[in-house]
Each structure stands twice: as structure tokens, then as C-alpha cells.
Amino acid sequence: MELNPQDMVSYSPLMKSFTFNAYLVAGYTPISRASQLDFYINRPGGMKGYILHLTLRGEGRIKAGNRYITSRINDLFLFPPDVAHYYGRAETSEHWDHLWIYFDPRPYWLDWLRWDRLEDHIGITHLHAPALSEIIQSCFWEVIQQNASNELLSEALAMNALERLIISCFKLQPLSNHQSLDPRISTLCHYITEHIVEDLNIEHLAKQVFLSPSRLAHLFKDQMQETIFAWREKQRVNRARNLLQSTHLTIGQVSQAVGYEDALYFSRIFRHHVGVSPRQYKKRYEHMISI
Ligand code: FCB
């Protein structure tokens, strides 16, 4: 996808206000020595979702545990949730331009987000072939542009482009199959999303995968870095976002459709994750839903 530099700058995160509560935010950060964006990002606790980076020009310096790693042109870096972010332009380089996507993965993406080369939890992949680098770059731009658009279903299209991007990256991982998610956990994630409206307790869930409730709770936390119910809550909110974006359902109906009997409680949870109430969120999309 060809973009002129003027268009590219409009995707710079400092040019508009971003919220990172959403399940997908993407941008382009062009850093030049002494420019407005020339500072180190420092997020000691990391972020709630994943971040994927691609370097387009110059070099970035990224802290991984106790050491620093250079991100060069065509390097991809994948930061999982809660892993510290400390990075900026490498002092020896005039620029560090990079594309990035912040996202909350769909459950079945999790296996594809396990990369072979890890430096202190941060995944690293280099795009050797120019053709491949072009494909990956154009997926990035597609995600960024769909994400910035206000058109109906643009968020779904952004997720779709991101899914292709993640699959393409996963195909580059020669050993990936060796470290896939525990199959009981992925089975359970599917089960939960299929039964999102039901109020299933841990005993019931544990039975589905032939584990004891406490063993399941441990295994889930170990594999997913959060509790089952925290994870389910996120899935419910994401489903609600989809419904609010693209249907005429009332807030009460959406609340029921994602498993919350009490619409007020649902609104509180929704606001906690998304940053605005379901009503405000729905308003943003109202003019786009055709009758
Ligand atoms: C931007 C950074 C980018 C990424 C996103 C989340 O400000 O430039 O590298 O960290 O925030």
C-alpha cells in the first residue's frame, strides 16, 4: 500500500488522542533525532494487551530484561501483556520509524503468538525475504487505516487484517508447534466463548477438560497470565463492543446477550474496560448502522 509521508504522519500517536483500553489500537511512530517523538517509552508494568512492532527505518533500542537489543529494519518485536516496555531511538541512529499494533487477541490466536526466539519474554522475528516484508507491511497499514476509519465494520476488518498478519508471522516460526498452548486451555477458551451468556462456575468448567477446579485455575493462570473469570470478562466486553457497533440492540439486550442479567453492572464493567459507557460507545457508531 503506497502512502505519501504526509498521510503517514497523520497516524502518529501524538497527533491524536489514543486510548489503550480498546482491543485494537494501531499507529505509525516516525522518530528523528530531537523531534517531538524522540523520547524513550517507559512502561515498567507493560500493557494489558499485546504489542507488535515493525521497524521501517533507522534503529530502535529495546530493553529485554537486563540487556538491550537493537531493532533494525524488518525486525518484528512482540511484547506480551505485562512485560515491561523500555525503548526508543538508538543513539547511533538518526531515525527510528516503526509501525505498531496494540491488541487483545482472539482466543484461537494465542497459539500463533508463541514465537521461537524470545528475549526475556519479548518475541523477535526478522523478515528476511523482501516479498514477505512487503506483505507484512501492507497488513500493518491495513490494520492502521481500518483502525483509524469510522466506517461500519472497520474494526472487524482491522481485526481480520491483524489475523492475517499474525498468521504470516507464525508461519515464520520453525519450531512453533513445540510450544503451543496446553490443549485443555485452548479447548476451554473455545468452550467459554461458545457459552458466553451462561454463568458457568469453575466446577463445571473443570469437568469439561477433566481437571480438578484448583488444577484448572492454576494451569489457566500459568498459561494465560490471568484468571479464567478475568479472561471471560474481557471476552464478554469484546462481544458487547461488536454488538454495539453493528446492531440495533439496546444496552439491556446487549447486556443479556453477553451474560449480564443486570444492565447497570454490565455498564460498570464495560466502562472499566473500554473507558466509556456502553451508551456513549453506541453513540459513536449509531450513524453508521443502516436500517
Ligand atoms: C506509541 C509508541 C509505540 C507503542 C505504542 C503503544 O507511543 O511509539 O512504540 O509503544 O505507543
Automatic annotation (TrEMBL):
Domain HTH araC/xylS-type: 186-284
Any one Gene Ontology molecular-function term assigned to this protein's record: sequence-specific DNA binding
PROSITE patterns linked: HTH_ARAC_FAMILY_1 (PS00041), HTH_ARAC_FAMILY_2 (PS01124)
Keywords: Activator, DNA-binding, Transcription, Transcription regulation
InterPro entries: AraC-bd, Homeodomain-like_sf, HTH-like, HTH_AraC, HTH_AraC-typ_CS, Tscrpt_reg_AraC-type_HTH
Official protein name in the record: Arabinose operon regulatory protein
Organism: Rouxiella sp. WC2420
Gene: araC
